[in-house]
Amino acid sequence: MSRPALLIDNILPQIVDILGCYNKSSTTQSITLKTDLSADLNLDSLGVMDLMMDLEEKFDITIPLNLMPEIKTVDDLANIIIKLAAES
Amino acid sequence: MGLFDRFQNIQQQFQRLKASGDSPFTVQMQQILSQTEAIIEGRHTILMGTNNYLGLTFDKRCQEASIKAVRESGTGTTGSRIANGSYADHQGLEDDLAKFYDKKHCMVFSTGYQANLGIISTLAGPDDFLLLDADSHASIYDGAKLGSATVIRFRHNDAKDLNRRLLSLQDKPGNKIIVIEGIYSMLGDKAPLADFVAVKKKYANTYIIVDEAHSMGVLGKTGRGLCQEDGVEADIDFVVGTFSKSLGAVGGFCVSDHPQFEYLRLACRPYMFTASLPPATMASVRTALKIVEQEPALRLRLWQNVEFFYHHLQQLGFRLGTTKSPVVPIYMPDPGTGFRFWQTLLHSGVYANMALPPATPMGTALLRFSICSAHQQDQLQKVVEIVKQVADKISYFADKPLARMAVA
What is the predicted ipTM? Predict the structure, then answer.
């Protein structure tokens, strides 16, 4: 049974919500699709991996570690979640 | 962007640490006095930060075997086994290990890191899936990165999460290889092996590798590790381990009953393209292996020391790792406090390990102690007293009430 396709506008608030727990930067800049996980949120490699685990649970998907190099911004993240959810 | 620009952040952090005095990354032991003592910065220091669980680095029998091997076979092999040939001791050591584990096959590697790198990267092919415990050692992650399989991480020690991920993969072709550790190096906790084995058995083409680096010599009736202690050895496909902890030397190995295991010798690059273990190391390891098997009293003393040290730190009110094991971590409320604690301890004559994120789980800072069977109780008592004095000196509990845990 395939599930309904996810839309970026619908999932962005959920991603932002989870990202809020991982934001290590001192700036209060709001998180947008352009936000860079490393440069803007100061996430280290382990932080990114833990974040992925929370997102995997939230969207019931599996994000292979091999995809990490492709994920730099929130936009990349949202698109990968949409793609993986469509495949599962 | 400059060649080294991306390391600037880490370099700045290191410089800040260095500016405040000793850095955990540059400690130099000027003289090693014994398994448990060294001279550091001119001070007599008790070693609480080695992985020398059975204290075999100074065992006379291991030392003499090494010296004899150097005299008879020289200082090094000067090449790889594939290109430059094996010594009789390479095969001898592999036979000893296979016998020790009651397995049919064994391959030795030049380091434990290379054992994981080699086995993980070679076993899992492009169509396969590697399932790694989230708290895995860097060598396991690096092995996955070197290989070509799809890499999936499951929640630490969570068999339910592993099951969820295997379930989602069950219709996909390709082998599934689960990688877990016997004892985890930072928190000292053990894998729930029986639960993982039960999950593994539900799925076809699914294998388990257990890295017994910190549990070999420490757990199990004859020191084989957690698989032996939990009675699941027959269900584990590959056991990886190291010679650099309980066996007091350097090197790594993998044992297995898989009938095609020997194929790896011609496919596993971290095995094929590196200089092989030198004679002195093989000789001391072969001797140490016999001692591990034949002298359970060493393990008994180790666990008595663990009980003593863990109990006394707990009584002082520190928040410790939840599992009693030869790795005893104190949770630090933040990296700064951890660093001050570590540094003051060193200046007071106790060497422990400072573990900082991202090397630690969940971004925690840990002051990590490791116990040796050769620690005398008066040494451990002294360490406990010094730890207490340091906590008082840096107002550890006064400043950070969260650092304290309720004593049951």
Answer: 0.87
